[in-house]
Amino acid sequence: MASIPTFSRTDLAILSELSPDEYEARLHKIQEKKGFICDMDGVIYHGNLLLPGVKEFISWLLKENKKFLFLTNNSAPTPRELSQKLARLGLAVSEEHFYTSAIATAKFLQSQKPHGGTVYVIGEPGLTYALYEAGFTMNDSNPDYVVIGEGNSHNFEKITRAVNLVARGAKLIGTNPDVNGPSDAGIVPATGAFCAAVELASGRKAFYCGKPSALMMRYAASILGTNKDETCIIGDRMDTDILAGVYAQIDPVLVLSGVTNRSNLFEQAYRPFIVLNGVGDMVVESKREDE
């Protein structure tokens, strides 16, 4: 099992720029939310390692009849694959609790072309499948859209084709703006980095559908059936998860179990609603209140 920070409650209040009483009040407010939108990598697991407190957190969500959705900018996996991954880590979560940037991208494009259209895709099967399901067909000659997502098979030939298709009029769509992501070897370039290459070479700007876009947040909230005051988003990245909450006016909860840490927490102009060590912090407090 991976490890997470163990800051004291006093330290977490300081990191949240709150007094101890304000911190407790905000934590209680989050616990009382009806809907939880939760990032995955860095919040639920690191790679193939489950983070401490996650099993207890999911049990708490189920016990308290909370509505929850795991929201990921990763466009590669399908909801079924994500459900199966959690099953391998010892968690039983059905696939309707997962929503990816691939699904958000397909939903957006479907809203633009309700009767279907054509796409040139640079990405993994999860993205292609979502687009097929939304009524789009593959086209590498004169597509309506060039869609770029996550993947480890991107190459010069594919990027060059994308540049020329966009230059000839295809609209450039990125499943998410992340320029890099974590890997066992350090970091790897992600969707935003590949989109940037196409943008620079073609002179056209991409439209992004994933976090921090409020678009994806509204899609997620509509699935939960909760309004913005009843919902929070939990994540480990200030530049996507927390900013998504700010854009959508949904209280953003930052956990220090992933990318953000004490040294880079204060780099942005915006702030999280509250800072926790990990998702298990909410469960511990819930149990204490019941005692």
UniProtKB/TrEMBL annotation:
Native organism: Spizellomyces punctatus (strain DAOM BR117)
Per UniProt, the keywords (alphabetical) are:
Hydrolase, Magnesium, Metal-binding
- Where is it found, in Gene Ontology cellular component terms? cytoplasm
- Write down the chemical reaction(s) this protein catalyses: 4-nitrophenyl phosphate + H2O = 4-nitrophenol + phosphate + H(+)
Query: Which Gene3D superfamilies does the record cross-reference, listed alphabetically?
Result: HAD superfamily/HAD-like
Record-annotated residues binding substrate? K211
Q: Where does Mg(2+) bind?
A: D39, D41, D236
Q: What top-level branch of life does the organism fall under?
A: Eukaryota
| The EC number(s) this enzyme carries | 3.1.3.41
Q: Which GO terms describe its molecular function?
A: metal ion binding; phosphatase activity
The annotation note on the cofactor reads: Divalent metal ions. Mg(2+) is the most effective.
Q: Which InterPro entries match?
A: HAD-like_sf, HAD-SF_hydro_IIA, HAD_sf
Name it: 4-nitrophenylphosphatase
Cofactor names from the entry are: Mg(2+)
Q: What are the catalytic residues?
A: D39 (nucleophile), D41 (proton donor)
Task: Respond yes or no to whether keyword Transferase is given for this record.
Answer: no
